[in-house]
């Protein structure tokens, strides 16, 4: 039976990258947007859900989620991660290939992930595959890349430095160079953790020699200097210039890289860039000693650097924002020395309000939020034909957002497996009121009204 959803602020698509907020109604039939009509132009026989002044946005997409299942479900899992994502306004997440066991580096591993996810996902999901090196001068799973694409992987993730888990071995630049022609031929994006280990090893060695106090955040920050990112990005741009594969820089933390990335994009190189809520909303100056809930890699840098990232977002050099939701059990993140704690920040349920709180102060609009969390992520993940915008014929995936609402982050609002967050106690502006997947509420009134019915989108890619 058809149903109508209306609001005084519906974000409708306009010529990219803009969007237009207007009074409108979505008529949904069998989970699909059948019509978009004037606010009051609803046939009498159709039930209307009126959201008033709450903004009706396209369903949001997180392209950088560590779900960790199978194998490390005690860290996180499909049920808890997608529940938190639904509470955060996301209707789709793209799962990273590491921290799960086995890592998603083969079709067999992808099938194991699908089996593990069955019946647990509150929202839709699809996987990134992993590109790995075996520790010598070759690329270990190069022959698996095309089968992974055929099986539905949206693209690939690799590291140029040890990723924290043994199974997804990092690549040297020489190994990545060998993989580049295959990546270019397949046409899928390569997501790269862009830090080189040389500057980090040198800085860390000096700090240990000085007997630095690792409970101080300044010590951890000094151990991962900007140059680790800069040298990696510089080398990656050269590889893209030579081979023209699609490169996506994940979690950019240093604003010093913005000029070279802007120049590379102006040159027409196929490069996209993401940053994360923690880099935009927390600064090094406010991180207390021992506050390992703020540890991530690359590290959160200073306030001036943060403002440079915001400027890059405004200028379009940074294309999107992704959570890099990377949870772990509490015992892996004890307060104290930063070198002993797991590096990762969980934020699926808080990312949108955290960003909106800071974006609104800087004059950004809800249109920017949609660009960063819907339009650009859909394009990166190959979902633009069905997601990222509200349009007739598309799945009725949408997020109801109250941009003026004020609320305080507490543990019961996090919803992921372990209630660890650097945002606990913060008062935020903007609240996710409800999240709809194919016309049905998966999150509403701080609850989850239906059993999980999210889909594995990779099957239809």
From TrEMBL:
EC code(s) of this entry: 3.5.2.5
BP term (GO), one: purine nucleobase catabolic process
Annotated Amidohydrolase-related domain residues: 56-442
Name of the featured protein: allantoinase
A GO molecular function held by the record: cobalt ion binding
Family annotation (NCBIfam families): allantoinase
Keyword Ribosomal protein: no
Gene: allB
InterPro entries according to UniProt: Allantoinase, Amidohydro-rel, DHOase/Allantoinase_Hydrolase, Metal-dep_hydrolase_composite, Metal_Hydrolase
Binding partners and assembly: Homotetramer.
Pfam families, alphabetized: Amidohydro_1 (PF01979)
Gene Ontology cellular component terms for the protein in this record: cytoplasm
4Fe-4S in keyword set: no
Upper lineage: Bacteria, Pseudomonadati, Acidobacteriota, Terriglobia, Terriglobales
Uppermost EC category: hydrolase
Domain of life per record: Bacteria
Similarity-based family: Belongs to the metallo-dependent hydrolases superfamily. Allantoinase family.
Source organism of the structure: Terriglobus albidus
Cofactor requirements of the protein: Zn(2+)
């Amino acid at each position: 039976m058809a149903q109508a959803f209306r609001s005084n602020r519906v974000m409708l698509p306009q010529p990219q990258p803009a969007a237009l907020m207007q009074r409108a109604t979505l008529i949904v039939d069998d989970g699909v947007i059948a019509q978009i009509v004037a606010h009051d132009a609803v046939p009498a026989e159709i039930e209307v859900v009126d959201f008033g002044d709450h903004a009706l946005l396209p369903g949001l997409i997180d392209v950088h989620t560590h779900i960790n299942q199978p194998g490390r479900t005690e860290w996180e899992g499909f049920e808890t991660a997608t529940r938190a994502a639904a509470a955060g306004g996301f209707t789709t997440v793209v799962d990273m290939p590491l921290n799960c066991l086995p890592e998603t580096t083969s079709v067999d591993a992808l099938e194991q992930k699908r089996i593990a996810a069955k019946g647990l996902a509150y929202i839709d999901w699809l996987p990134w595959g992993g590109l790995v090196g075996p520790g010598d001068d070759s690329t270990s799973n190069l022959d698996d890349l095309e089968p992974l694409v055929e099986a539905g992987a949206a693209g690939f993730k690799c590291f140029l430095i040890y990723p924290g888990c043994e199974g997804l071995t990092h690549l040297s630049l020489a190994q990545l160079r060998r993989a580049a022609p295959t990546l270019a031929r397949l046409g899928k994006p390569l997501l790269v953790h862009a830090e080189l280990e040389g500057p980090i090893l040198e800085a860390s060695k000096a700090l240990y020699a000085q007997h630095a106090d690792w409970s101080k955040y300044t010590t951890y920050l000094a151990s991962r200097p900007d140059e680790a990112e800069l040298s990696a990005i510089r080398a990656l741009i050269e590889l893209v210039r030579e081979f023209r594969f699609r490169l996506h820089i994940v979690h950019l933390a240093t604003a010093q890289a913005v000029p070279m990335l802007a120049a590379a994009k102006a040159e027409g190189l196929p490069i996209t860039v993401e940053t994360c809520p923690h880099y935009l909303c927390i600064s090094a100056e406010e991180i207390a000693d021992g506050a390992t809930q703020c540890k991530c890699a690359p590290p959160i840098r200073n306030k001036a650097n943060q403002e440079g990232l915001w400027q890059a977002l405004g200028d379009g050099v940074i294309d999107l924002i992704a959570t890099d939701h990377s949870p772990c059990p509490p015992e892996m993140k004890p307060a104290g020395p930063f070198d002993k704690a797991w590096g990762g920040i969980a934020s699926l349920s808080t990312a949108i309000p955290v960003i909106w709180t800071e974006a609104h102060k800087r004059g950004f609009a809800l249109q920017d939020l949609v660009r960063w969390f819907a339009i650009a992520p859909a394009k990166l993940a190959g979902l633009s034909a069905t997601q990222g915008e509200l349009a007739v014929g598309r799945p009725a995936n949408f997020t109801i957002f109250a941009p003026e609402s004020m609320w305080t982050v507490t543990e019961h609002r996090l919803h992921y497996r372990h209630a660890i967050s650097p945002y606990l106690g913060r008062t935020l502006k903007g609240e996710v009121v409800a999240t709809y997947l194919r016309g049905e509420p998966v999150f509403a009134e701080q609850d989850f009204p239906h059993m999980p019915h999210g889909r594995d989108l990779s099957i239809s890619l």
